[in-house]
Amino acid sequence: MRTRPGSSRSTVPACHSRAAAAACTTAVALLLAGCGTGQDTPGGDRGSHTQDGGGEADATSGARHLPGVGARYRARIPEAAGQVVVVHGEGRDSARSRVELWARGGERDGGDEREGRGGTGAWSLEKRWQGHNGKRGWTTDHHEGDKRTPVGVFTLTDAGGVDAAPAGTALPYLHSAAFTPPAHWADRTEHDFDHVVAIDYNRVPGTSPLDPTRPRGQEKGGFIWLHLDHGSGTSGCVSVPRRAMEHLLRTLDPDRRPVIVMGDRATLRD
How many CA atoms does the CB half-sphere of 208 hold within 13 Å? Predict the structure, then answer.
């Protein structure tokens, strides 16, 4: 078994002080009801193990609207967003999903294209991967412990993990051993949090993914992350292959206001 690294340089505080260490301990404990799987595996999707897999995108470009995303959720995408991760769940009660990275250029103004500022530019599909979501599927009314992933449109502002950030990572990244899953979790979850991107559901954007603050209340759950896939459903997070996560960390750019649009196919099309 490998040795976990300690905390290192970050744009947000690591767990060095007593207060910060207490907060990190609380945060990791709350993962039991948030992102992690623990020992609760019966009924979960047992799809193929894809941690080191990857997927190339089909040649799709020039889309005026994101395919499979209906007017309701399109309207929630900020105009400034130049990058969107779209998660299409296979079904309301399915743990399997397809994860896509889309990007668009900016508006044309006097012949000059302002790249990466969202605007009215056409969408282009950059990458596509298979992944997983909550082991019980999706919900539009997420509550702590329901094992479902919240449907919606959320910003992506912060990242972190047990491992150091891949070269080129632009999102603020907390490298800390505090992300290490509890020892009593299943062995297959050991690397789940080597890298994570916090999904801004019931959290304070601009803080560490380990920040336990839940503005909408504890009962609405939290710690909904993009993290590494272990081959089956999660307790509410979205999981992707390692190469997918590394690509996302190298590609997502805070200046392009990245967001994630996620839900089961039928709900997203609404």
Answer: 23
